[in-house]
Specification:
About 35% of the residues lie in helices and about 15% in strands. It has a six-stranded mixed sheet with strand order 4-5-13-10-11-12, sandwiched between helices. The protein has a four-stranded parallel sheet with strand order 8-7-6-9, sandwiched between helices. The longest helix is centred in the last third of the chain and has 16 residues. The radius of gyration is 19 Å and the shape is globular. The structure holds pyridoxal-5'-phosphate and zinc ion.
Length: about 375
């Protein structure tokens, strides 16, 4: 198993702790993949994402068994005819980030790593909370870098897991630079959900689960929120694997959603560009997807286009209204998650033919995580 550069295809063993190629290119993961036997998983007694271990970079009998907190195998809820919500707030740290975090930390454990570095990509800090939780579970020391402006409530949760917090004055970029400086100086494992492709090995299980829950069928389209695109990239990898294994004939469409107030990828897509320019933004309530300079922009654009998908921006008002509407259906989600339902409603107007098609959107995070 190797990291492989998306630009020049140089490979690096995982033990190298590389997080970027010498050429500056980002890294993907390369290993021999096995197909999941869905007849076997359908009756598995393992009710977590680990029932798909055949498709993951681990053995059946491996370190993940000591680290799992039961993440994954989340319910899907019927919202209307042909429309389903996948409730990823049923997770140990209340968001889908646990899918990626458990894979990252389990791999670090497998590699014999004692200490990892991570940083917050946005205000929500959901990924680092998950990393800190699984780090505690695995007995791995986490050094977590956050902007100095991060709320004390979030910091308290991360510290409760025993992680060392490093508060960095300045911007989110300053925080990332400080984390990277420590990764370099200590040659640590960078448990980054943006740079480390092992994270997507976890998020891809979202699609494996949906496929099984829909009786070994794919919906026609997946509504996917995009900040850094970790759920989107995971979903796309799963589509490619299922096609390669002959388990589906064609990929479902990725219908991506950004907050209109912070939509660099939508802008690039609409402009027909192949790369994403960072934007200035005025802020959005959907802080979990407020990523002005997504590192994986090029790959995200490719994935959307490869599935004949689309990407739209939703307004602040529509996010608030969607959250209200979901709550009136008994579903209380994080504000960021409401963007997905707002996106679904907007897509139904944009493509009326969707009403005869099966659609799944995610409930990414629990309502109590937002103020
Ligand atoms: C992280 C997060 C997202 C966005 O995920 P990306 O991987 O950044 O695209 C969406 N919703 C919630 C609730 C999140 O925590
Ligand atoms: Zn390279």
């Amino acid at each position: 198993m190797n990291y492989i550069c998306v630009e020049c295809h140089t490979t690096y063993p995982l033990e190298s702790n590389k997080w970027k190629c010498e050429c500056g290119g980002l890294l993907n993961l390369e290993y021999e993949k096995k197909a999941v036997d869905f007849t076997e998983t359908a009756t598995s007694r393992n009710h977590s994402l680990w029932k798909y271990v055949d498709a993951l970079p681990f053995e059946k009998d491996d370190v993940w068994q000591e680290i799992t907190l039961g993440e994954g195998d989340t319910p899907i809820i019927k919202i209307a005819e042909n429309v389903y919500a996948k409730a990823d707030y049923y997770m140990p740290t209340l968001s889908f980030k646990d899918r990626g975090a458990v894979l990252l930390i389990a791999m670090a454990k497998k590699l014999g790593i004692k200490r990892v570095v991570a940083d917050s990509s946005g205000n929500a800090g959901t990924a680092i909370t998950a990393i800190a939780a699984y780090g505690a579970r695995a007995g791995i020391q986490c050094d977590i870098f956050v902007p100095a402006s991060t709320s004390s409530k979030k910091i308290a949760q991360i510290e409760a897991h025993g992680a060392a917090i490093h508060k960095v004055p300045g911007t989110r970029e300053d925080t990332a630079s400080a984390a990277i400086a420590m990764v370099k100086s200590t040659e640590s494992f960078y448990a980054s959900h943006i740079y480390n492709p092992i994270f997507w090995e976890g998020t891809k299980t979202y699609v494996y689960e949906v496929f099984e829950q829909m009786n070994n069928n794919m919906p026609d389209a997946f509504i996917v929120p995009v900040g850094n695109g970790t759920l989107l990239m995971g979903a796309y990898i799963a589509f490619q694997e299922l096609v390669a294994n002959g388990q589906i004939e064609k990929m479902p469409r990725i219908l991506a959603v950004q907050a209109e107030a912070c939509a660099p990828i939508m802008k690039a897509f609409a402009g027909g560009q192949d790369t994403v320019e960072p934007i200035e933004h005025t802020g959005t309530l959907a802080e979990g997807i407020a990523i002005a300079a997504p590192a994986r922009g090029t790959e995200i654009l490719q994935a959307i286009r490869a599935t004949e998908g689309d990407i739209i921006g939703v307004s602040e008002e529509s996010i608030i209204e969607a959250r209200k509407q979901l709550a009136l259906k008994g579903i209380y989600v994080e504000i960021t998650s409401a963007a997905n339902y707002a996106g679904y409603l907007q897509y139904m107007e944009k493509y009326p033919e969707l009403k005869d098609q099966q659609i799944v959107f995610p409930l990414c995070g629990a309502g109590l995580k937002s103020n």
